[in-house]
Design goal:
single chain, about 280 residues, mainly beta, 6-stranded antiparallel sheet, 5-stranded mixed beta barrel
Length: about 280
């Protein structure tokens, strides 16, 4: 990934972190390229809920923000992006205007933006319905979900569990500041289609069960829930923030079955020490 700090921004840099099978190994994510603030008096994602509630008070303030683009348009000689700053919940819509630029950013891209709040935009600007901040962009990095939420620690698990001709591997766990990501490989050695949707995947911490979420946007593809005979699928799921040095994590995947017979495969269960000091159980 490469940073570009100029008004003419036509760079599309992607961080792609594929999910590899156990026999191939799993690559460590590259070090993130994070924009450096122009000054210490800046607004960030942590401030944006307050800013969004009263955008007029932020006019003239410098910002460094991460967002997911949900709309792209051209206004005169400028590229205008509609972005969710709270991209987990599709909230805190913000207008990003890139002067003298007409292309280079696509819908669902994640962006790091440096700029200045220049005015309060309204629904006529085409980004959501409520008044919201408009940021004139002076610096832009185009990336994916891994780029805006880089892993702070990666625990390589690589543990395979096999039931009735179906092999599931918990490849690794990535601990980021605002989310936790788990990557899996599913191999269907049967002559029927495997139905293994993420709705049956959860973790348990201290007796509390938390379901998996399929991450939105580019960067973390989830494995397809229908795995045809002889096929292998790779992908990741998102969970809330977990401490890398916290208690053991129990990972359960339930509700897996074959089609058309309806045969239940049973539950896959892994117990993982987040520190990586203790071998996982399964």
């Amino acid at each position: 990934m490469r940073q570009v700090w100029a008004l003419r921004l036509l760079v599309a840099v992607g961080l792609v972190l594929g999910v590899l099978s156990a026999c191939e190994g799993a690559a460590e994510p590259p070090a993130p390229a994070t924009p450096a603030p122009a000054s210490t008096n800046i607004l960030t994602n942590q401030d944006w809920q307050v800013v969004h509630a009263e955008p007029a008070a932020a006019v003239g303030q410098r910002v460094v923000l991460r967002a997911r683009v949900y709309g792209v348009s051209q206004v005169d000689d400028d590229l205008v992006l509609c972005g969710w700053v709270d991209f987990d919940n599709d909230q805190l819509s913000t207008v990003f205007r890139i002067p003298n630029t007409l292309e280079g950013v696509e819908r669902d891209a994640f962006v790091w933006v440096e700029g200045t709040v220049v005015r309060v935009a309204d629904s006529d600007d085409g980004c959501a319905d409520a008044p919201q901040p408009e940021v004139e962009v002076s610096g832009l990095t185009i990336t994916d979900r891994l780029g805006v939420r880089p892993a702070l620690r990666v625990v390589q698990v690589g543990q395979a569990l096999e039931r009735r001709g179906v092999r599931a591997v918990l490849e690794r766990i990535e601990f980021a500041a605002e989310e936790t990501r788990m990557y899996f490989t599913l191999e269907n050695r049967r002559d029927e289609t495997l139905l293994a949707f993420g709705t049956g995947l959860e973790i348990e911490i201290g007796g509390t069960a938390v379901p998996a979420v399929i991450p939105t946007g580019e960067g973390i593809p989830a494995p397809r829930g229908r795995v045809v005979p002889g096929a292998t699928e790779h992908g990741g799921f998102q969970f809330p923030t977990l401490e890398p040095g916290g208690p053991p994590i129990t990972v359960r995947w339930q509700g897996v079955r074959m089609e058309p017979s309806g045969e239940e495969i049973g539950e896959w269960t892994w117990v993982v020490d987040p520190t990586g000091a203790v071998a996982p159980e399964g």
